[in-house]
Amino acid sequence: MKTQHHILSLNRAILIIGGIALLAVIALPIWRIELDAAQYPEGLELLIYSYKLEGEVDIINGLNHYIGMKTLRADDFIEFTLLPYLIGIYGLAFILVGISARRKLLNILFGAFLLFGVISMVDFWRWLYEYGHDLNPSAPIKVPGMAYQPPLIGFKQLLNFGAFSIPAIGGWIFIACGILLAYCVYVEWRMVNYKTS
Known about the structure:
Layout: H1 9-25, E1 31-37, E2 40-48, E3 53-55, H2 57-67, H3 79-100, H4 103-133, E4 154-158, E5 161-167, H5 169-196
């Protein structure tokens, strides 16, 4: 009867591979925001990693100054200190649950990972909201009632700039790991219910 509490070998392999992929996310860009305008036909790109910002950060900061947005600096975000460790912990948790093969631990991991994903997206939305709304009143360019919050995901027009926000490679890996984890939980749940029916 003990084997009833253990997860399938395929699901164990999925978890271990998912854990290794999550560890790789630490070094990969998670999100990207692209800005397009007539004066920048090649576009401007902001890449958000778990611990830093990359892309045309200086040019974007220069443009943001005119509309009163705060300067984007990685040092201003506690998330860049915590996120690499949190992703690393989840990556190791995936691997350890895969090795231990305990169904109970799989369910706990799923709940914790789902919560982490929701909190991360809410925090990212709050970050975008603050930068788009907390403007310097003495900025050179002021448009009454205008906010400059980039979209969490998708496209939004901000004055003469089009802002496009989408997961980068690390973000897609993160999403894929969540989907595969949900798949493992579903398969195990089906197995338990099939055996007891």
